[in-house]
Amino acid sequence: MHLCPAVPKKDRAGQGLHDYIGGRKMKDKNLRILICGGGMMGKSIAFVMTALPYLDVTVYHYRDIDLKSGIWESVKALAEYGVLPEDEIRRRIDRVKLVTDLNDEGVKNADIVIEAIPENLEKKQAFFAELEKVCRTDAIFCTNTSVIPPSHISAGLEHRERFAGTHFWNPGHLIPLVEVVMTDRTEQSVADTLMEMLKAAGKHPVLCRKDVPGFLANRLQHALWREAVSMVEHGIATPEAVDEAIKYSFGLRLPRLGPMENADMVGTDLTYNIHQYILYDLEDSHEPSPVLKKLVDEGKLGFKSGEGFKKWTAEEIEKSKDDLSRHLIRMLYNK
């Protein structure tokens, strides 16, 4: 693993991390990280950060919860499939501290803060405004939002240069990707520090240099989803056929062959010729599909209600979730 050299504090903005990055232990203290929100993503992010033995991991939640049991339930598949020994997982979970008071020392002295509260712009803005009153002035602030532009969330803060997005993908303890999103004010040194810390924690961070809706991966994912839903809407294929067409063709290549590399492999000339022919006919609506709206209006919300594009029994829902976890663990850990 590459470890970047320590950089003097004066050369970087928001540097609670300046003394050591990616394993460079400080002489007088450990690095302190605060996760705000003990829900699904907050629990996973907290566990990920315990991969770094020099991190003091604190989770702030607005009320008392059985956080350690919640983390275990989220990550126990790692033990069940032999990725990590159960005793190691439980030791890591035991290092996580829960606090319910924003005036706790774990909040006030945090070097880096990752927010994972519900996706509401006003609530996130108000929460960070409170954090800025109690946290150190050199702490780096991050938001795990998957939808809201981090530039909007940080708009009212005094130290916007030390704010960035860190979008973990669900399930956060399995999916390697974390999108580090620079706002219109984020200093490059802050983004570099976050990239290095996430690499050290075993994640695969990518840098989004402009704060655009959907960042990188969601823009790509929903471009595909728009075309997939459109095919169902226009009777080209059933939902099952659309899914199978992806799963049994280019979907198999995607973990090793992204679109840019694929374009080079087949030739940019061939890619250009195909685009000249096919792009005109692809879905380019700027509104959600009427089929999708109809499903929502009828309360057919997928797994939540037992029916969406397809009908789902409770057993099928659990099987789908379990199959995903098993697939990810097999692909990532060869277990």
Description:
It is a single chain. By secondary structure, the protein is an alpha/beta fold. It folds into 3 domains: 9-208, NAD(P)-binding Rossmann-like Domain (Rossmann fold, 3-Layer(aba) Sandwich), CATH 3.40.50.720; 216-286, N-(1-d-carboxylethyl)-l-norvaline Dehydrogenase, domain 2 (Orthogonal Bundle), CATH 1.10.1040.10; 298-335, no CATH class. Helix content is 43%, strand content 12%. The chain contains 15 helices and 8 strands. The protein has an 8-stranded mixed beta sheet. Strand 5, helix 7 and strand 6 form a beta-alpha-beta unit. Helix 1 (40-49) packs across helix 2, helix 2 (67-75) packs antiparallel against helix 4 (86-94) and helix 12 (259-266) crosses helix 13. The longest helix has 20 residues, at 314-333. The chain is globular, with a radius of gyration of 22 Å.
